[in-house]
Amino acid sequence: MPKDRSPTRIQKKNRAAILEAALEVFSAHGFRGATVDQIATQAGLSKPNLLYYFPSKDAMFTALLSELLDTWLDPMREINASGDPLEEILAYVQRKLQMSRDYPRESRLFANEIVQGAPRMLDALSTDLRDLLAEKEAVLTGWMAAGKINTTHPKHLMFSIWALTQHYADFDVQVRMLMGPEDPFDAAPEFLETLYRRMLTPTS
After folding, report:
1. Do 32 and 66 share a domain, yes or no?
2. Which 3 state secondary structure label does DSSP give 56?
3. How far apart are CA 180 and CA 25, in angstroms?
4. How far is CA 69 from the centre of its chain?
5. Which residues are CB-contacts of 7 (< 8 A; sequence separation ≥ 6)?
6. Residue 78 belongs to what domain range?
7. What is the pTM of this model?
8. Is 202 left (phi over 0), alpha (psi -120 to 50) or beta?
9. 53: exposed, middle or buried (C-beta count within 10 Å: 0-12, 13-18, 19+)?
């Protein structure tokens, strides 16, 4: 889309519609299985009109991933080094779980990209995510050294939180099939809080 002037309201609306349609198609079919024609149809636009905003499928996918990574990092950024260590970690777990509930398509898109070797996210993962994780690892290590939470491997602690919370989005069909009529998110918050509280509460 031309950048020599501010986008109009219609242009903003169309761009948002395209990215919403792209999210739907990419999360369902993956990058390789998705086509520009599918996205245009989903967005209710002609293919030439869509290509006015995004010149390629890759451009749409990259735009989505850029926004997604920033959204994904926000819950980790909120971990406060000055807060109560256990409560900060438990709150982070709940924020991640809520993201799986609110953004299942985004989670699957992110997971699919990682499974493919993250070709469009490698630079961001090796800078933004790695730097933020290193910052929070130092916070966790400090809390452990002070005896405020049980000592464990800080990176693996974070990996386990990601795995246990994002599973509900990435394997939504399987989870809901096995849970039957029960909403998996009804009991998940209490289960995960109990799990991590028992794991991290210092023993007297």
Report:
1. no
2. coil
3. 27
4. 6
5. 1, 15
6. 62-200
7. 0.84
8. beta
9. buried
Indicate whether 33 and 84 sit together in one domain. Answer: no
Q: Are residues 91 and 116 in the same domain?
A: yes
Q: Give me the phi and psi of 132, to 5 degrees please.
A: -65, -40
Residues of the chain under the 70 pLDDT cut: 1-5, 204
- My answer on whether 80 and 162 are in the same domain is yes
State both tokens at 52. Answer: 């006015």
Phi-psi region of 136 (alpha: psi -120 to 50; beta: other; left: phi over 0): alpha
Nearest Cα neighbor of 121 from 57, 70, 53 is 70
CATH number, domain with residue 92: 1.10.357.10
pLDDT digits (tens, 9 = 90+) for 165-185: 999 999 999 999 999 999 999
Tokens 């777990």, residue located: 93
Residue 153: the pLDDT is 97
177 and 140 fall within a common domain:
yes
88 and 32 housed in the same domain:
no
**Number of compact structural domains in the chain:** 2
Secondary structure in 3-state letters for 57-75: HHHHHHHHHHHHHHHHHHH
pLDDT tens per residue, range 18-54: 999 999 999 888 888 899 999 999 999 999 999 999 9
Q: Cβ(110)–Cβ(169) under 8 Å?
A: no
Task: Fill in the DSSP letter of residue 121.
Answer: T
The reply to whether 49 and 109 lie within a common domain is: no
